[in-house]
């Protein structure tokens, strides 16, 4: 039985790694005796997976996990039992039973982020909206993505414009700007919010105050026939 759940990751727990988050859930499953299946082989482990792991330092209201259960458990019972043993900053919100295929990683296509940052320039709200419009009207925006592979830093130039779905100005106060941004999060293309912000800042030669950046994932979505849909 494959149960897909949605959970939050907030406050100080945004600083724990993906590996530590997996260990946290492993302990929680065992503490509440949840009937999670084990893999076969010499080193069996619990069968569950988290889709599109967050980068360190990003909070979220919309994380997703698939849990392979040995038997069907009431969703309300699952949520109640797990939330009793999980830290307060991780809450399971809802869930539903789904087919084993397609996998969670292949279903997730987009992430919706709230990005709050501070610039050194004085811009009006209309000027910011014009920058956003110009950015979205571009056919190509080249950006150098940096990734570590086998301990070595690799650089790759990509056109990231197709990986930006939309930009909405949510708030502007003095030099602090809050944007809601839809970014590609899939096996065929993935744009990290920090990379988007760097490209946005560099595109207009703005100056970013690195100590005043806060990123929060609002939710994740699938896509079918050019329309996005809720994961649960």
Description of the structure:
The protein has 232 residues and is of the alpha+beta class. The chain has 2 domains: 1-100, Alpha-Beta Plaits; 108-228, Alpha-Beta Plaits (2-Layer Sandwich). It has 5 helices and 12 strands. It has helices at 18-31, 75-85, 104-107, 125-137, 193-203, and strands spanning 2-9, 48-50, 59-68, 92-98, 110-118, 142-149, 152-159, 164-173, 176-186, 189-190, 214-224, 227-230. Strands 1, 2, 3, 4, 5, 8, 9, 10, 11 and 12 form a 10-stranded mixed beta sheet that branches. The chain has a two-stranded antiparallel ribbon with strand order 6-7. A hairpin with a 2-residue loop joins strand 11 (214-224) and strand 12. The radius of gyration is 20 Å and the shape is elongated. It starts with a strand and ends with a strand.
